[in-house]
Amino acid sequence: MFMGEKIHLFTVALGALLCAGLVALDVRDRREQQKYGFSVPSPTMFLVKNVTLVGAIMFLTWRLAAYEGYPIVLIVMLLLTAVYWFVTVRTTLGRRIFAVGGNAKAAMLSGVSTSRYVFFTFVSMGALSALGGLVVAARLNSSTPKAGTGFELDVIASCFIGGASAYGGVGGVIGAVIGAFVMGVLNNGMSIQGVSIDWQQAVKGLVLLAAVFFDVRGRSREG
To answer: 103, 165 in Cβ contact below 8 A?
Structure first.
């Protein structure tokens, strides 16, 4: 219970459960790939990857458990990431949404009700935006109509950094989360260094332009 510092056992248990789930998914994917004759990493590389992943998660979990446990916002983010990752990668709904995003006309000619999936996507994003507004209001302990002004640039840049394409139909939930972490680190770093707001916006704009440039250039080469 006490080892020089109070440990939140629920946080440790939650981290262990997350690690077990990730390893189980990786093992299942590996078996499916072997079943259909796809090449897979060697057992040594597979073990090293999972040990490294579990070690990193448990280290972060232990540090958080020794402080105040997992923040509620982090738990909500992990749950949403898991749900949307499953929907986009493992369900027909997700595949059809990607198809509509890549080429709506081709998807419609294939029998996909494009208007229904566009409507569902906008409703889902509206719900997430409302949840984001609640989180921001909770952090600021107040709410104003302009509380989220300027977040659009961060969100768009996060998506492009995470692998989304300007042409649509490409990207993923995990990539968007990684892009958000990159933008968060960039914002915190510039704030700590005392960079003015105007220059912060300029730097983030340049990062977005660079991500779009490489995406368009890569697509042009493929074409």
So the answer is: no
Beta bridge partners of 18: none
pTM over 0.70: yes
pLDDT per residue rounded down to tens, the chain (223 residues): 444 456 778 888 888 998 998 899 889 988 988 888 888 888 899 899 899 989 998 998 888 888 777 788 888 888 899 899 889 888 999 999 989 988 889 999 988 899 999 999 999 999 998 998 888 888 888 778 777 777 888 888 888 888 887 777 778 888 888 888 888 888 888 988 888 888 888 888 888 888 888 877 776 665 5
Question: Per the structure block, which two tokens stand in for 94?
Answer: 């997700």
Between the alpha carbon of residue 223 and those of residues 84, 108, 216, 217, the distances in Å are: 30, 23, 10, 10
